[in-house]
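Appendix B. Worked example

We walk through a single record from start to finish. Start with the input: the chain for BTB/POZ and MATH domain-containing protein 2-like, Cucumis sativus, length 411.
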Amino acid sequence: MGTIKSCRDTSKSYSNLRSPTPPPVTFSTSRFETVNGSHEFKINGYSLNKGMGIGKYIASDTFMVGGYAFAIYFYPDGKSVEDNASYVSVFIALASEGTDVRALFELTLLDQSGKENHKVHSHFERRLESGPYTLKYRGSMWGYKRYFKRTVLETSDFLKDDCLEIHCVVGVVKSHTEGPKIYSITPPPSDIGQHFGKLLESGKLTDVNFEVDGETFSAHKLVLAARSPVFRAQLFGPLKDQNTECIKVEDMEAPVFKALLHFIYWDALPDMQEIVGLNSKWASTLMSQHLLAAADRYALDRLKLLCEAKLCEDVAINTVATTLALAEQHHCFQLKAVCLKVIALPENLRAVMQTEGFEYLKESCPSVLTELLEYVARVTEHAVITCSGYGNGTVLDGSYVNGRRVRQRLY
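Next comes the structure step. The output line below is what the pipeline stores for this chain.
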């Protein structure tokens, strides 16, 4: 019995030596980020606003960023009396109700000569020094009383045809705190495009037909109307087509319309070479050109941007002039800049001028030739300008085929 009692006493002594169980550790993270938005404000008839008086301003339309409305205020005669109307003033103002709205700002006066020597005042670049600016109430402003001396402005490249262009960026600071999650659920990626795509492939429940270049395509009115405002007007508007048994689509080839429907249903670009039936970069580029024009025609902005990005990546000597004309006609400014820079390179210019696309460019977009000459002059002035990041501009696609000068057929 004595032995048993001794064992129990030992157990108690060990129990007293054990450390208490540590409390559970919890955590949280506070995240700060900016919700960015931009606005371009064009002032036509600048000279007509001179003399309106110190403190008088021209206001842009309001624009929303991060749930708040903002506006650009331009003071032709300056904002303050002490500046004696020698300077123009530019401010960004909070145009909606709000208290202590913290934001970063950037104001850019656009150089309209094409030299891209823009006048930029950026709060974003100084955020580590002073932090975001606080707009305390509606009407609070950030900007510059002495933004630009009037006499200098009026003889500069920022003023063209009595017009000024101001670009602003606003970054509203948002914050949220994240705590520990007590679950781990990973939702699968969205497959709505798969469902709609299979609906198109099945051909079931279609209620409208299109005849395109001798081929017939069946589709669903509601899907087309939901995706394109042009189709919505054509199918349901006051001037809708009465005969939906067969709507004839002019000035478009069948593979292009097929690719257009593929995007509308699948929300993704099709395999360009598969649709055309030709395994070459030239065929893919040609399809992208046609599809960009179709996207602009039916107001499919996302498709238009996807085609623009693909054409930027696939610039080649034998197609760049046609692509430049397309960019000018459909207002694709980034694609236009890429094409101009590629063509202006001394090692590319002569070869591009010998293509049929260059003849089409001269006939259809003569004003672009002036811009091209400016780029060429700039390249000559600076001796060498590389074209890194602008696709294969210096490579001649060996699959070039002598076809029609304007938008060669796809098959």
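Two observations about the output. The radius of gyration is 31 Å. The first strand starts at residue 29 and ends at 44.
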